[in-house]
Amino acid sequence: MNETIPIQIVNHSKHPLPQYSTSQSAGMDLRANLSESISLNPLQRVLVPTGLFIQLPTGFEAQVRPRSGLALKKGITVLNSPGTIDSDYRGEIGVILINLSSEVFVIENGERIAQLIISKHETIAWKPVEVLDETERSSGGFGHTGVN
After folding, report:
1. Most CB contacts within 10 A, which of 8, 72, 88, 113?
2. Would you call 54 helix, strand, or coil by DSSP?
């Protein structure tokens, strides 16, 4: 079992806190916090509020990712996927959704619109050098592994 990490959260919505659907889920569903529904036209994007504010420990980030069911069935996805929430951000979590379908999609209050994943990350320091080590691939381009 993984270690649980306490994360401070303020919930200004009327919805339950995000939670894992199963014991092995990586993400927790985020819900729209709306006073009225939003009609999202084809190719339109919108910032959807969640009513949630979090305080992540240093060395952690939150990632906002699409829900596979919304993407497959309705063509709705998170535009800046994954959206990153840094540990020093204290504003409301918002989800940038885009409608990639040919039909209007209506976002209702309380609807599950995205997933939230909390991840640990490393901080790096650049080490300037004149040459990089050679590899089998070397400078082969995107999708190039040297195999026909």
Report:
1. 113
2. strand
